[in-house]
Amino acid sequence: xTNSKSQPTAPxxxxxVHLPQGAERGAAPILVEVVRGQMVESRHxxxxxxxxxxxxxxxxxxxxxxxIYGRSAIKPLxxxxxxxxxxxxxxxxxxxxxxxxxxxxxxxxxxxxxxxAWLAKIGLTVDDLECGAHFPYDEPTxxxxxxxGERPNRAHNNCSxxxxxxxxxxxxxxxPTRNYIQYEHPVQQRLLGVLEQMSGCELGAVPRGIDGCxxxxxxxxxxxxxxxxxxxxxxxxxxxxRAKAAARILTAMMDDPFMxxxxxxxxxxxxQATGHQAAIKVGAEGVYSGAxxxxxxxxxxxxxxxxxxxxxxxxxxxxxxxxxxDEATEMKLHDVLVPTIRNWAGTxxxxxxxxxxxxx
Amino acid sequence: xTNSKSQPTAPxxxxxVHLPQGAERGAAPILVEVVRGQMVESRHxxxxxxxxxxxxxxxxxxxxxxxIYGRSAIKPLxxxxxxxxxxxxxxxxxxxxxxxxxxxxxxxxxxxxxxxAWLAKIGLTVDDLECGAHFPYDEPTxxxxxxxGERPNRAHNNCSxxxxxxxxxxxxxxxPTRNYIQYEHPVQQRLLGVLEQMSGCELGAVPRGIDGCxxxxxxxxxxxxxxxxxxxxxxxxxxxxRAKAAARILTAMMDDPFMxxxxxxxxxxxxQATGHQAAIKVGAEGVYSGAxxxxxxxxxxxxxxxxxxxxxxxxxxxxxxxxxxDEATEMKLHDVLVPTIRNWAGTxxxxxxxxxxxxx
Lengths: 360, 360
Fold this sequence. Notes:
3-stranded antiparallel beta sheet; homodimer
């Protein structure tokens, strides 16, 4: 898949993440274990970075200098232009739409109806989305569609809110809406600039690829991805419009967590349970990000093997470590933080849990 | 999940696997990499053992002494009593049923119809299966069921052939059929004996758990699981009845690979392409086994993180290494051995491939 014409180089941070004394670039430790009966059956390794908005690393496990694709975990960053450009206000968008712009949603009725109404509001249709179609993540919704002979449209794509946001921004700024997913399009070039500013990395010549929904993915170091999230959480150092946009995006996510994911999803359940302490966002291939406004911290998790079952358990453990999930919340969320494995007959057969020697 | 009453101890091989000089018990190396665009995005570690029927290790990467649950990858071993007891012949079972007894099948029409006819032949019904029900793995079949408002029954369970085999053996030997999935039932105790004899391990006090279909899973060292598979492939050292049963089981798998898995599945496609050189079988949590009659070798793969996308790529690489997959077959199977990742719009975005520094 390598494009031999361009030789990508590793991302070069211009604003370094400041490693604490003694921190080393190490192999990802085993942070999650999958237990069946009397034995650990599988193990997941992950790297974790926690930084403040100035790049001071307050937590580091594994290799936080490794380049990662942030995938959908950086959608809160990708929503910045929608708000700071004035597009959201120009088209009268509210909390639900801004939360949807950060979402990997379930394709439940409220998600798709809100996307369709939003597209109508900007004078476009589902055919203007360039994300492809897939059946809703929400199984009851998908199964009901099958039962009624319905096919999915692009509004069912988990990224349809992000794409509606891109279209809204392009319209507001008088840019063409066609091909807005292409790397060269003003929408994507603007996002590249946002990621450079927020992460402190030069990203013009770094490895890139294409995401599941068709937009570019850009390699950024794990620690700098956490830094970008920290700057959302503690935006005092950002230009005023961006600072306001950052606060509004995180507030929208925490005000309407259903829109960010949906029924039974980790992002939604944990944000509902932790009030306005954390905005968290899952990404494909084992990425998870978080912005903690009260603490002014950003989090980024990357599971080496790309498994979502592990990234959730790691994020839960990080939020416990930072006191965002207290003992009462932990008890309430037990089956979310330490999921039970059941067999086809419904009998519990195991657990996915923090590793016995998890270092935090 | 630990049962505090019994303190399981590590499996103790009585017939040791003979490690080659210089072989060490090491961490699982990275054998598979998941590429997106210009960068490796995720990595999978795995351990691999290849042995002959006397336990000589002819290939070893990672930790082959680690205890694993063989899961569905050892179904060819679990089918031995069905054949060697005379039950299969007593009830007039043929190649299709014996292949199904080793299967994690797709729940396609030919799979479920054969299971239902088999149950009728032994005077039982789908309600006698104790495996629980789930929608077929085969997506078109599952979606057609949704479209017609059909619910799955236990014959759709991917393990229904194995369970039909257990019931057939119990009936033939005059044992009760109820609770045949329980550890204490004669069916499972007999299987424990078979696994001890084939692996050369004492398994009475080792860690165990419950599989997805309700039967016990028993911890065996990875290398000894490969040894057990090698003894299927080269059964000369086994008692006559067992040797004949071993040959008949492998032949059934290779004669009718569709029954072992189904449309588009790795086991089926690779066995179809490699003729009668290899009987391979996938298991949950990243386990894969193989028995190679021509070479007299057994293979066992365990992916540390339990991911099936990685176990398939490792098994393909092992079969290439051993010459079972030659250059012509490799070209024919390219998209099976090195699967392309596509986004929702169908655009290729990456690959799952052997790691650049895969040591074999």
